[in-house]
Structure formats: C-alpha cells, structure tokens
Write a structure and sequence with these properties.
Elements (H helix, E strand, L loop, with lengths): L1 H8 L41 H5 L10 E6 L5 H14 L4 E5 L4 H10 L8 E3 L7 H9 L5 E5 L1 H12 L3 H16 L10 E9 L2 E2 L8 E6 L2 E4 L2 E4 L3 E6 L4
Parallel strand pairs: 1-5, 1-7, 2-3, 2-4, 4-5
Antiparallel strand pairs: 5-6, 7-10, 8-9
Helix pairs in contact: 6-7
C-alpha cells in the first residue's frame, strides 16, 4: 500500500501484473525425427582469427546460439567482440552491435583508435531509454546473422527502470526475445547468433549466466595487433547445458 501511495504522489501509474491464460492445447511435444531446419544452421561463420577455434569445434561462430563473453573491467571484452563483428561483416555477414554503455561520441573515439570497427552498424541504446523494449524488438526483427549486446546488465537495468518491473521479469523478456529471434523469428528468417557481453567481478558474473545456454567465453588478456587477436594469458571456454 505504501509503495502504491508513493507512485501516486509521483504521478506514476501503479504497476499492473499481467497474467497469461494457460491453454493445454498449446503444448507441443516433438521427436527429433519431426524437427527440421535449414542446412545453414550447421554452417559456422568464420572470423579468420584465433577466436574461431574457441567459438566452436567447427572453427567459427555457429548460427542460432546464445553466448556470453565474460571478463573483468578493462579486459577487452568489447574490443574482442567488435573485432569479431568487423571480420564477419567483411565476409558478408549482417551484424549489429548494441551499445548500452557508449554513446555516439564515445564510440567515435573508439573507432579512431580501432579504424576497423567503423564498418560495424551500431545501435546506441541510450537514445531509446523510454522505448527500450519496442526498439530492440523492432531492430532485432529486421534479421541479422549476429547481434552483440554490450552489456547484459545495462539492458536489464534500462528495462527495469523504464517499465518499473523486477529483474526477473526483465531477464525473462531479454531471454525470450533472443530465443524467438535465433530460431528465425525475424523478417529475413535468419538464425541469429547472440553474443552477450558481461563484466565479471569477484562474485562472478551477475546477470543471466545460469540462464543463457551453450557457452561462456572468458577473456582475460589480449593484444590487438593489426586487428589480429593474440592471446597472452588464457582463454577459458565453459560449456553450459541448456536450461530446462
């Protein structure tokens, strides 16, 4: 009651809890023999860098996967991902970088230091804080081979603040959106791969690590020389089972 009064004083509408009616007829169970996907879902997207052998045993980023790139502050997560996207774009792949941290000026300065990144289309999410959900759903629906999001925490916080909801609700929307789009739920029917960037603290990754499926790549240190990645320390790849 106190929270409701405070919202009224601030001129905000009380948050309404939406419920979805369960229809037993909507439940579908499949055998593997009943599933069918285009052969393109099995073709790796090669960057031509050392990252290919880390991304999959097929030497490249596979279509229709969700991935988290983890690392400590300043470890080079964004640089590694932008390098991957620039290489994929040069090979004809449709890529997108969603920046929840940098604005246009920050990104411009970044590209001045790393000219190869200029070719990567970028959505600056801070320009759409009032419509973050609608903006991301519209853009993702255009159809991309690879979408990188920097970072998970920024998107979740933006969603929570805009729609005055819980962290769990924000994570659920975030994961469902990626699940729909990666299975071809977009205009071009592309099996989109998602690269989610997440900062690691002493307590470990904060957002969604137990929920995002397939793989976590931890980047500890690297040098970028002529846009080729050389790993100096170690890169750990941890396979995660799908969350049921």
């Amino acid at each position: 009651m106190k929270n409701l009064v405070m919202q009224k004083k601030r001129g905000r509408k009380p948050k309404v809890q939406e419920t979805v009616a369960f229809d037993p007829k909507s439940v579908q169970i499949f055998k593997g023999s009943e599933l069918s996907f285009n052969e393109s879902v099995f073709r790796p997207m090669s960057t031509g860098t050392l990252m290919d052998s880390i991304l999959s045993t097929d030497k490249g980023l596979m279509p229709a996967v969700n991935m988290i790139i983890c690392g400590g502050p300043g470890s080079g997560k964004s640089t590694v991902v932008l390098d991957m996207l620039s290489k994929l774009a040069a090979r004809g792949k449709k890529v997108l970088f969603v920046s929840g941290e940098m604005d246009e000026i920050g990104h411009f300065k970044y590209c001045k230091r790393m000219p190869g990144f200029k070719v990567v289309p970028t959505l600056f999410l801070k320009n759409y804080t009032e419509t973050v959900k609608e903006t991301m759903e519209y853009v993702f629906n255009q159809g991309y081979d690879v979408i990188a999001i920097d970072s998970i925490a920024e998107v979740i916080e933006m969603y929570k603040d805009t729609y005055r909801t819980t962290e769990s609700a924000a994570e659920l929307w975030f994961l469902n959106l990626q699940c729909i789009v990666k299975k071809g739920g977009n205009k071009l029917k592309k099996y989109t791969s998602f690269i989610n960037i997440q900062q690691v603290t002493k307590a470990g990754p904060k957002q969604c690590v137990t929920l995002i499926e397939l793989k976590v790549v931890i980047v500890e240190r690297y040098i970028l020389v002529k846009t080729e990645i050389v790993i100096l320390n170690r890169i750990s790849s941890i396979e995660l089972g799908s969350v049921k």
